UniProtKB/TrEMBL annotation:
Xref: InterPro entries: ABC/ECF_trnsptr_transmembrane, ECF_transporter_component
Keywords linked to the UniProt accession: Cell membrane, Membrane, Transmembrane, Transmembrane helix
Full protein name: Cobalt transport protein
UniProt entry tagged with the keyword Membrane: yes
Membrane topology (UniProt): Multi-pass membrane protein
PANTHER family, per the entry: SLL0384 PROTEIN
Domain of life of the organism encoding this protein: Bacteria
């Protein structure tokens, strides 16, 4: 039985960028993950990274885009500086970490953009429109909300640690490593164990498992810029995949 989504009204919120459909964000994240592993050159990775920066700039995440741009530039510079000294085991380890983090940074940017700019209700409404099975919708909505709740718990734990004089910083990690880790991880793990059960119960109380029609306060639909950006990324993925199949190295 299909589960249509009815919309009561659309909230009018102030936005400094374009508001993309949740399905667009998911498609972009999946396609970008595939593109990241089709090429290995720094020029190729830089092109994909600049594309992600552009997406975040027009999608309300300018500060995140600037921070990640600085990190990417620092990692590329570090790789170029330490390249002549790769025979040293420690330098080789640093080079490995820098390359791995730099390679997954574009995917991390889009994932953060997806979580930061998508309400749980929007995400669930988009899943209903895609005719996703109900058990998958309930599970993914709980996981989606869990990330946001864990972030709030992380901030609360850091505030409590600062009040006790055990702030999470480099100095305490060096001088008091065991005490800092214990006061950080133990409360976080306990919170995570409780959060999953509470969110699952809350989802059921809100009737998320109800097979009948559902309502949403936000209108979820594809706009012209959703179609445009998905078409561009999909075309790029198709062209690059054909080049890789032919044996070209990117």
């Amino acid at each position: 039985m299909s589960n249509p989504v009815h919309f009561s009204y659309q909230l009018k919120t102030q936005s400094r960028g374009l508001t993309f459909d949740p399905r667009t964000k998911i498609l972009l994240l999946i396609e970008m993950d595939i593109l990241l592993f089709l090429g290995r050159s720094i020029r190729y990775e830089s092109g994909l990274f600049l594309l992600c920066v552009l997406i975040l700039f027009i999608g309300e995440q300018r500060r995140t885009a600037l921070k990640c741009a600085g990190i990417f530039f620092l990692f590329v510079l570090t790789q170029q500086i330490i390249a002549p000294y790769l025979m040293n085991p420690f330098v080789s380890l640093v080079h490995f970490i820098v390359v791995i983090v730099r390679k997954v940074l574009p995917a991390f940017m889009l994932a953060k953009w997806l979580i930061a700019t998508t309400d749980v209700s929007e995400f669930v409404a988009a899943m209903w429109k895609c005719k996703i099975p109900q058990n998958i919708i309930v599970t993914t909505s709980v996981v989606f909300r869990c990330f946001l709740t864990i972030r709030e718990e992380w901030k609360a734990i850091q505030t409590a640690m600062q009040m006790r004089g055990i702030a999470l910083n480099l100095r305490n990690m060096i001088t008091k490593p065991s005490e800092t880790i214990i006061h950080l991880l133990v409360p976080l793990f306990i919170s995570v164990l409780n959060i999953s059960d509470e969110l699952a119960a809350a989802a059921l109380c809100r009737g998320l498992d109800n097979p009948g029609p559902h309502t949403c306060m936000r209108e979820v639909h594809f706009r012209w810029y959703d179609v445009g950006i998905v078409s561009v990324i999909t075309a790029a993925l198709a062209v690059i995949s054909m080049l890789v199949i032919k044996g070209d190295h990117l």
